[in-house]
User: Fold Heme exporter protein B from Komagataeibacter rhaeticus.
Amino acid sequence: MTFRIPSLIMAILERDLRLALRHGADTLGAVLFFILAGALFPLALGPSPELLRRMAPGIVWVCALLAALLPLDRLFGSELEDGSLDQLLMTGLPPSLIALAKMLAHWLTTGLPLLLAAGPLAIMLGMPTPSMPVLLIGLLLGTLILSLIGGMAASVVLGARRGGVLLPLLVLPLTTPALIFGAAALDAAQTGLSWGPDLELLGAFLAAAIPLCPLAAGAGLRAAVE
Assistant:
């Protein structure tokens, strides 16, 4: 069984990626929401380049956080509805690894496109070019954290009445530290201060989320099918 675990994880990941390509509206909707939400801030705040440049770190991170929430309610919900979640649990793969594979699929279909779209949005907001590497490194860590915490929260509310309403209430407070550290690192890079400690804290947050979130999500999957 030990030798089958990697192949089973890859099979789940491949299946989710095929489904995401077949139903690309979720990914496209998240990316469009990210760009359009960011484009609304210059209209509300005014055309001042200095103001937009100063607020760009918070704008990019808040928009990325909200955009990553959009596909989460279907992360496990569709499998529970059609019975495929029971079949996945019957493969013998630990529920935590099933959850981890689906979280990784969520990042590849949502977090990675948001990461690629962050550059054009940052340029539109007037962010300095030297700050771009810090933006991309921070969002790489941050979107992984969002997928892990979001997958954990999606499994907790799985099968609950009005779970789509509960999901943001669970995810937003838990992802606040990632938002703070990521935006602080980007702001420090723009002002010429040291941005390393903030990214290190973001990396420590990710290191804690990698083992803990799949374990909690696996418990939520077991409770949902029982």
Q: What stands out?
A: The longest helix spans residues 95-124.
